[in-house]
Amino acid sequence: MQLPLGIRWDQGADLAGFVPGSNAEAVTAVEAAAAGDPVPVFLHGPSGGGKSHLLQGACRRAGAVGAASAYLPLSQLGEHGPELLDGLEGVRLLAVDDIDCIAGRRQWEHALFHLYNRGHERGTAMVMAARQPPAALGLGLPDLASRLGWGLVIRVRTPDDEVRLTVLRTKARESGLDLPEKAARYLLTRCSRDLVHLLRLLDRLDAASLAQGRRLTVPFIREVLGEPGATRGGHTKPPS
User: Which residue from 77, 129, 130, 146 could staple onto 43, CB 3.0 to 4.6 Å apart?
Assistant: First the structure.
């Protein structure tokens, strides 16, 4: 389930569509948790590696078979109190994201510590994520850091360009777009390589392509991005 708190949820997050690249171990562990394996999983790594996608995809897969789940991105819950965590051990799958955000916040740390213990006692499948591994989070509650390291602690690596290329072209195809390899590689060389940013840019290109009835060629992409030398109609200004 998704808590009714205005949580931003990527409806496209799907384990089946996740391109593992060098993160096959993380995908396998999260798939096992989604199926009910009670071994806790802690994912860590920089933003853009797909941690949130994996957590949301796990909840989606659990929900597809009727298993109750909860996705908690702590970065979005700062205005709420830690009492939000009360009773969540009753779900089949618990996914807690952005644990970095509660480091040093005593009440939140204690609430998560007790939730973890209750979930562990009940056999709740738990997948948690942060940018740093448990011991490096700077938590004020040593017992919480210890608990978070009980199960599998797996580093999620930033995808390389070939994985980014595959993800972009796959997402484009799912949206009914033809993103030629040349155009996709152009995006990788001219834009931020952060995958979240690239997928948002793909949405923007999708809307522009639909509105103008244009294909995703390099000249059209340059035009949408407002790059110097691009002119309407998909042609570029010749050099002077």
Answer: 129
- Label residues 99-127 b or e (16+ Cβ within 10 Å = b): bbbbbebeebbbbbbbbbebbbeeebbbb
Q: What is the pLDDT along the chain (240 residues), one digit of tens a residue?
A: 445 456 666 766 788 888 888 899 999 999 999 999 999 999 999 988 889 999 999 999 999 999 999 999 999 887 788 999 999 999 999 999 999 999 999 999 999 999 999 999 999 999 999 999 999 999 999 999 999 999 999 999 988 888 888 888 888 888 888 989 999 999 988 888 777 788 889 889 989 998 998 999 999 999 998 865 554 444 333 333
Please provide the CATH number assigned to the domain covering 15-155: 3.40.50.300
> What is this structure's pTM?
0.79
Tell me 156's DSSP state.
P
Domain boundaries, the chain: 15-155, 161-225
Asked whether 161 and 193 are in contact (CB, 8 A), the reply is: yes
Report domain 161-225's class.
mainly alpha
Other C-beta atoms closer than 10 Å to the C-beta of 27 total 19
> Is the Cα torsion angle 50, 41, 95, 93 positive or negative in sign?
positive
